[in-house]
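Sanity check

After download, print the first record. It should look like this:
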Amino acid sequence: MGLLDILLGRSKPAAPDLDQLFGLPSAAVTLEAAAGFTPTGHGSVCFATVEGAAFDDVRQEVRALLDADAERTGPPVEVRRDDYGYTWLVSRREPDDLPALVSDLHAVNSALEGSGFGPQLLCSVVGFQDGDKRRLGLVYLYKRGTFYPFAPQPGGGERRDNALELQIRAALANDLRVEQDLGRWFPIWGAPGLG
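Expected structure tokens:
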């Protein structure tokens, strides 16, 4: 950052730091104590779809890496495309095995980044729910290196529980690097891995 940036009040955005994902298991303890939310065992990585042999090779490598794990529940790894044309790689684990799920998400992000596809990475999400079956996703923004909560309202439709999101932000302020710009708390309607 140069002198002109300092004078104009510009700052450098946080660099992606995939190791931030490893803070999720301890944040989950805080989340359960503060709001009663527990992991669902579902998580996913979202990236802009890229065509070509190099990207197909990386995608197959990632699937093979995650499919090889014998302790996985349900379908090993699932690839989905959403209505906006983004690709989601979904991983499922036992709800009490959040560290393994986080390792899966880290491995996917690292493989894509290491193969030169970092610019295509958008976010990772880990699903939580409470006793009333309310859903919550902790979303990691790859390009910002920050997290934010996403809480869709129960009953379908595209409405968010903003009060719950702010409550979760306050509860996790000491556990995760939370995105301060609320304008970057993008809705991820129908995101695989959220529920």
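If your output differs, re-run the checksum step. Summary of this record's structure: The mean pLDDT is 85.
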